[in-house]
Amino acid sequence: MDRTILHCDMNSFFASVELLEHPELAGRPVAVSGDPSSRHGIILAKNEEAKKYKVQTAETIWQARRKCPNLVLLPSHHYKYEEFCKEINKIYLRYTDLVEPFSIDESWLDVTGSLKHFGKDGKQLADEIRETVKRELGLRLSAGVSFNKVFAKMGSDYKKPDATTVISRENYKQLLWPLPASEMFFVGKATSAKLASMNIRTIGDIAMADERFLASAFGKHGTELYRYANGLDDAPVSRYTDEREYKSVGNGTTFKRNLRSRDDVRTAVFALSDRVAERLRKHGLRAGGIKVDIKDPDFRVITRQTQLDRAVNSSKEIAEAALAIIDRNWHYPDPIRLLTITGINISCGEAEEQLNLFSAPEEVHKKNEAVDAALDAVRSKFGKYSIMYGGVLGNDLGISYKEKESEEIQYDEV
Predict the structure, then answer these.
(1) DSSP-based three-state secondary structure for 353
(2) Residue 378: which pLDDT band, with cuts at 50, 70 and 90?
(3) CB distance 379 to 315 below 8 Å
(4) Residue 179: is it exposed, middle or buried by C-beta count within 10 angstroms (0-12/13-18/19+)?
(5) Residues near 6 by Cβ (< 8 Å), separated by ≥ 6?
């Protein structure tokens, strides 16, 4: 028997939460943005009215206002979004314990075992959930209903806002195969461009391609794309209480002024690395590699990464690896607007090391871990901001442990 999987995706989530306190803005184009005075002047979210003007997430405020001069900007409040996320998932849990959050505003629900209890089919149950969230929280969502997670996700994207789309074994070829390949779940810009160069332009083209051909071009990802396009996804929906597997842990910020010297970069790297390392230790994790994203004032971005000989959660070791990446790939007189440092290849438990002639001695690793253990102990007793690296104090870069820089903890995807 086929499963019944729902994917629930909140509509314009950040903007909708902010508008709950601003009923006077109903019907006007509204966007949630960063703080322009702190150079965080980008669009974080927008409502349906702003979307009509082609306002896009991640574009600058001035670009958005060129499209929509009467755009209303509201500040972001991430603590609100986290609280609403919890309340939304509590509603989902009334229908099944198989609720798997995908992001702060998206969750999968496996309601296969719930249909008989509620006396409804998948679409009817999705419609009831939509109405419940709207009635109790004042927010709208779109839902996809399907026999697997990938098609359920694509169903929630198919029609917005406030809609339910069923993608079944009988209609998925009709609904999904004519769509551009870029609409396929897990097909990004680079993959889409490569597929186009191979004359694969629609989801149907992916489905009809030779699986071995896709595997030769994209490796494991090519096989996954073939399976997903053909409805062969059998990944389970996790229980809400299950621990999720971390994919990466990162932290980044836009600086008050551009970084222009190695000293500037070093100050920023050690502050960001300290936060990444602290989160890794909090969850009992280690990073086997480090990734660095660098954005210049013209919003050009380069991304570089390195594999470590030993999985680490030490602030110093993460910072040294990140600094080495930047040293190899950046010309320091060139200004840097934003840096993000991310621990990748995440693992749990004790570190395993690939030894080589240049590996640091074991006592060095133990010393670094002892320092971090002491930092954690002080912060646990006296507060998160009670101790920090000295180079961060008094800087003019806008780096403060009390500021809300962008931070991310990513989870393994389907």
Answers:
(1) strand
(2) low
(3) no
(4) middle
(5) 108, 109, 110, 111, 122, 125, 126, 129, 143, 144, 145, 152
Can you say whether the dihedral through the CA atoms of 9, 11, 15, 19 is positive or negative? negative
Prior bond to 161 cis, omega within 30? yes
Distance from C-alpha of 365 to C-alpha of 394, rounded to nearest angstrom: 29
Q: Return the amino acid letter for 39.
A: R
Rounded mean pLDDT, 196-224:
95
29, 72 contact by CB (below 8 A): yes
d(CA 274, CA 388): 8
Q: How many residues does the chain have?
A: 414
Mean of the per-residue pLDDT values of the chain: 86
* Closest of 62, 64, 21, 66 to residue 46, by C-alpha: 64
User: 220-229 and 211-218 helices cross at what angle (nearest 10)?
Assistant: 140
**Is the separation of the CB atoms in 317 and 368 below 8 Å?**
yes
The reported pLDDT for the residue numbered 409 is 45
Q: Is 131 a catalytic residue?
A: no
Catalytically annotated residue among 49, 100, 106, 317: 106
Distance spanning both ends of the chain, measured CA to CA = 21
Helix axes 362-382, 315-329, angle to 10 degrees: 110
| Confidence at 225, pLDDT banded by 50, 70, 90 | very high
Q: State the amino acid at position 278 in one-letter form.
A: E
Strand-pairing partners, residue 43, are 33
Question: For 118-174, how does the pLDDT look when each residue is reduced to its tens digit (9 = 90+)?
Answer: 999 999 999 999 999 999 999 999 999 999 999 999 999 999 999 999 999 999 999
- Tokens at 13, concatenated: 């989530």
| Largest pairwise CA distance in the chain | 67
Number of alpha helices (DSSP H) and beta strands (DSSP E) in the chain: 15, 13
Residue 355 has a pLDDT of 46
Residue 290: which of 310, 305, 269, 275 has the closest Cα?
305
Determine the angle formed by the axes of helices 122-137 and 78-92, rounding to 10 degrees.
Answer: 140
Measured over the CA atoms of residue 277, residue 280, residue 286 and residue 290, the dihedral's sign is negative
Of 92, 94, 23, 31, nearest in space to 64 by CA = 31
In angstroms, the CA 37 to CA 34 distance is 9
* Full-model pTM: 0.71
40 close to 34: Cβ distance less than 8 angstroms: yes
- Burial zone of 125 (CB within 10 Å; 0-12 exposed, 13-18 middle, 19+ buried): buried
